[in-house]
Amino acid sequence: MTTIRTVTGHDSAGASTIISHGPLPGCEEFIHSPGFSAALVWRTPPQARIVDHPGDPAQAESVIPAPGGSSALLVTFPPDDLAGGADFDPLAAAEELCQRLPGLGERFEAEAPGFHRTDTIDYGVVLDGEITLELDDGRTSMLRQGDIVVQMGTRHAWRNRGNTPARLLFVLIGAQRPPRGD
Question: Which InterPro entries does the entry mention (predicted)?
């Protein structure tokens, strides 16, 4: 399925206009993780400003926003039983994740596949399918189409135990993590 991204702005007279309209870059499946895809929809810096002709933030150094900034990601999770076949190369998959999602890929734990944590407050909306959110100590929550999750910088992993892909839209807001004990 092709996802179209439309970006608006203003013309020289201040009237609203379409700046760009076309396929969302980065929606193609990962090579080393068949069925998985993740695209940066948009990213804003801290204290974002409305500009007439916004540039495309797809070439960001990191998809993880700085405190006060935001990122929107569109992610498709294949069913778990399709994700790691006999030919699966975890090192190649990790390298591709780091290349395609800089700043996020490096946060995944090698010793606990899928687990990661970011200094963000995340809003996740299940667009299609169903997926399980896994937290520490095996705690889980099943999310279905239309469900919303708010994550407060928690360590987590996503598990698609179903037989169809799950598609989610995430909005990450950069936050500061207090020292432990606060």
Answer: Cupin_2, OryJ/VirC-like, RmlC-like_jellyroll, RmlC_Cupin_sf
Q: Are 151 and 177 in contact (CB under 8 A)?
A: no
pLDDT digits (tens, 9 = 90+) for 120-163: 999 999 999 999 999 999 999 999 999 999 999 999 999 999 99
| H-assigned helices in 36-148 | 80-83, 90-100
Residues in contact with 62: Cβ distance below 8 Å, sequence separation at least 6, in sequence order: 102, 103, 104
Name all domains of the chain by residue range, CATH numbers in brackets.
25-47+62-174 (2.60.120.10)
Name the token pair of 98.
């780091």
The arrangement of strands across the sheet holding 130-134 comes to 140-144, 130-134, 157-159
CA distance 83 to 77: 9
Residue type, 76: T
DSSP 65: P
Cβ-contact 54, 138 below 8 angstroms: no
Residues 104, 108, 113, CA angle at the centre, nearest 5°?
145
Tokens of 164: 């169809």
